[in-house]
Write a structure and sequence with these properties.
Number of helices: 16
Distance between the termini: 49 Å
Shape: globular
Order of helices and strands: HHHHHHHHHHHHHHHHEEEEEEEEEE
Radius of gyration: 28 Å
Strand order of the largest sheet: 4-7-2-1-10
Helix content: 40-55%
């Protein structure tokens, strides 16, 4: 595809800068590598900007339009569809390819009345109102930043956003009523509208049962709820479809990064904020280092090597990804046991063949030749000290969203984190890691852009999971085959 011509004026140059990051963020979710993501983003951005320029030169009529960023994200989906049709699907995420060939994807290009309610509701709004809603809810920008971009009064932007949410509710309610519905769904449409307007309204039992079994009405309910924080997911899902929740998470994190350099305060305030963040970061690193030292001390005082280790190390999904000849740092022993080699363990009784009268009083001295006994409690040794913080971000009837942060004591040139789900959970869509699952055991591999981790650095990723009963916290976390402490 030929290159896009340079920005035509200052306004379009600012538009380029604001929208490129969003396009690249979604393109990265859709592809398997950073280079491919840039290729996809280039093609989609070129396609989307050409369509925007053409629309600006057309005569405005009754045709409604999406805000700029949703239109560019739609161009990413259109480009992805073209890649799949042209035989370039191997460059795409495997789960995305499955979605592209499903009925869910067909809805976005099918009959207008069958398209997602949120998409139709957003298109039916004035473009300025729709832009305000998208920037605040999906791109997660602070309201002062949104006000500055749209030329609004910062003091009244919050009130305007509340009015726009109500307008979005009304447009989605109208789109839901216009959808071809059966008699039962149509009978619940008015009740659904009334229940979702008030934050304190209770959902009647019969409506709850209906929403649990009717996908179109459940989708409409997500769009109509003005309270509870469901609008961002409804908007993203209605516009881009696959990868909506992962995109939301990335945009939230990108907005936090922008806030980190200051947006609405003066230079002095930004400097103070930056200094405060530096103090918090240094304090966190010191606390993490102290905790990791305590973990290392505890491990050095415990026995290691058990039959369970053989079972775990035999699984393919728990093999370390580092090369076999890569040396691992030896754990530092406690000062009181500095004479003990790393391969020794404390025994409850002296080992027989060489009793010594001077070693009879307990506790016995460690013996290098001793072998583990099956009756003792398993405590594996560690080569790379690490700590895992697993956080359940959200949960619903049949699924959940979680985030994982791993702090490693040693630098890594590649990583693989493995764990065991206790209640039959199944990992699904994942961002910033590549997942695999065999039964209850899950492994997540580094992406090409986050393989390198500095000493005392952090690995962070998130995922959407499916429930099959309970949702207990995962256990047996291992980083590159070595066990991690749970945070």
């Amino acid at each position: 595809m030929p290159d896009l011509s340079p920005p035509q004026d200052a306004a379009e140059a600012a538009l380029f800068a604001e929208c490129w990051d969003a396009v690249l963020s979604y393109a990265d979710l859709c592809t398997a590598g950073a280079g491919t993501a840039h290729q996809l983003a280039d093609e989609a951005f070129t396609l989307g900007m050409r369509e925007l320029r053409a629309a600006q030169g057309a005569v405005r009529g009754r045709t409604t339009r999406l805000p700029v960023i949703p239109r560019l994200l739609t161009a990413v989906r259109d480009t992805v569809t073209g890649w799949e049709s042209a035989g370039k699907g191997h460059k795409l995420d495997p789960d995305l390819r499955l979605w592209l060939n499903s009925e869910a994807a067909a809805r976005y290009t099918g009959p207008p009345l069958g398209r997602p309610v949120a998409l139709r509701g957003l298109r039916d709004m004035p473009e300025a109102d729709a832009t305000l809603l998208w920037l605040a809810e999906v791109e997660a920008l602070p309201l002062p930043t949104v006000a500055r971009r749209l030329g609004l009064d910062p003091l009244t932007t919050a009130a305007e956003l509340d009015q726009v949410r109500v307008l979005f509710h009304d447009r989605c309610h109208r789109a839901h009523r216009d959808t071809p519905l059966d008699a039962e769904c149509r009978s619940y449409a008015r009740l659904l509208d009334a229940v979702t307007r008030s934050p304190g309204a209770e959902t009647p039992e019969d409506l709850s049962r209906h929403l649990a079994t009717c996908v179109p009405c459940a989708e409409a309910a997500a769009c109509l709820r003005l309270h509870g924080g469901g609008i961002p997911a409804a908007l993203a899902g209605g516009v881009i479809g696959w990868g909506a929740l992962a995109y939301l998470e990335r945009r939230r994190r990108a907005a936090e990064v922008r806030l980190g350099v200051g947006t609405a305060s003066g230079p002095g305030v930004r400097a103070d904020d930056e200094a405060a963040r530096g103090r918090v970061l240094r304090g966190s690193l010191l606390a993490a280092a102290g905790l990791l030292s305590a973990v290392a001390l505890g491990v050095s005082l415990m026995p290691f090597g058990t039959p369970d280790d053989a079972d775990v190390s035999a699984r393919d999904d728990q093999k370390p990804i580092a090369a076999p000849d890569t040396p691992h740092p030896d754990p530092t022993p406690a000062p009181s046991r500095s004479a003990a080699p790393a391969t020794t363990r404390t025994l409850p009784v002296p080992a027989p063949p060489k009793p010594s009268p001077t070693r009879k009083p307990p506790p016995p001295a460690p013996r290098p030749t001793a072998t583990p006994t099956p009756s003792q409690t398993p405590t594996p040794s560690t080569h790379t000290t690490c700590q895992v913080d697993y956080h359940l971000d959200d949960q619903w009837s049949d699924g959940f969203q979680a985030s994982v942060r791993v702090t490693t004591d040693a630098p890594l040139s590649g990583w693989q984190l493995a764990w065991t789900f206790p209640d039959g959970q199944h990992i699904g869509q994942t961002w910033d890691a590549t997942p695999h699952q065999d039964g209850a055991r899950v492994t997540t591999d580094a992406k090409s852009y986050n393989r390198e981790v500095a000493a005392h650095g952090t690995i962070a990723f998130g995922f959407i999971g499916r429930l099959d009963g309970g949702n207990g916290t995962p256990r047996e976390f291992r980083l590159n085959g070595s066990p991690c402490a749970n945070g």
